[in-house]
Amino acid sequence: MLGWYLLYCKGKKEATARAHLEQRNLGCFLPEAEVECIKRGKRTKEMVPLFPNYLFVRFDPFQTPIRTVLSVPGVSSVVRTDGQMVPVDTSLVVGLRQRLSQSPCTISELPQAGDKVEILDGPFASLNAVFCEPDGATRSRLLLNILGNQQHIALGNLSIRRL
After folding, report:
1. Do 69 and 21 touch, CB atoms closer than 8 A?
2. How far apart are CA 87 and CA 44, in angstroms?
3. What confidence tens digit (pLDDT) does each residue in 85-105 have?
4. Residue 125: which CATH number?
5. 27-61 b/e with 16+ CB inside 10 Å = b?
6. Residue 153 φ/ψ, nearest 5 degrees
7. Which of 20, 24, 73, 123 is deepest in the core (most CB within 10 A)?
8. Are 95 and 137 part of one and the same domain?
């Protein structure tokens, strides 16, 4: 029965599995979100799976042997219900595709103005501050309460962590 099945993939191997399955002419869907994060001290945006380690694949298990799908690099197993391979409701996959095509999902791991942050190193290590704004690609401006006075300071992005 042709349908969408959910595969469980090895860690961070969803894209590899998708590429190999598409080479075998199997339909795949990997819902992704754009994540704003700090990498090597710089603010960056990258696409990451919305459901880590999971990949939707469309095939007919009676036409395409399950071994063909399981032998793909990066694939661990097919998600089962009570030991049976059960297809995912097609409306779920279609709905996800439509929603992501209309408005891509964006997730921000970066602190926003007013967020509390912890200073990780330097003379102010272990103190809490309030994030004000980014100061270029690698630094951030913070508001730090020192001796009853609020002071603006600029620190590297690797020196702070959002609480």
Report:
1. yes
2. 36
3. 999 999 999 999 999 888 877
4. 2.30.30.30
5. ebbbbbeebeebeeeebeeeeebeeebebbbbbeb
6. -130, 155
7. 20
8. no
